[in-house]
Amino acid sequence: MARVCEICGKKTQSGAQIARRGLPKKKGGVGLRITGNTLRKFKANVQRLRVEIDGEATRIRICTRCIKSGKVVKPKRKKASAA
Q1: Range of 24's domain?
Q2: Out of 4, 15, 51, 52, which could bridge 72 as a Cys pair, Cβ 3.0 to 4.6 Å?
Q3: SS3 state of residue 25
Q4: Does any domain span residue 46?
């Protein structure tokens, strides 16, 4: 159950969080100094969504970018029976 989009393949990426101190030269300081470099993860915004694939409604993991761009079709809602 990985955090991977089943449409575009977007997944978790590794990166860094850089800690800086000091006042930038632009603002009249002596410049910024890097005081730390910590590894971190950038996680994809993946949602579980019911989509229509080959006429059948199935649940897949899909990133919000693919949802917004309309790469999937949501299944039609069944009407509640009037009993």
Answers
A1: 13-68
A2: 51
A3: helix
A4: yes
Q: Does some domain include residue 78?
A: no
Both tokens assigned to 82? 């009037």
Q: Could you give the residue ranges of the DSSP H alpha helices within 1-83?
A: 64-68
CA distances from 52 to 2, 33, 67, 70, 76 (A): 21, 52, 13, 12, 9
> What is the number of domains present in the chain?
1
- Does 56 fall in a domain? yes
Residue 6 placed within a domain: no
Report the amino acid identity of residue 40. Answer: R
Residue 16 dihedral angles phi and psi, to the nearest 5°? -140, 150
In this prediction, what percent of the chain has a pLDDT beyond 70?
Answer: 96
Q: How far apart are CA 83 and CA 77, in angstroms?
A: 18
Stated pTM of the model: 0.72
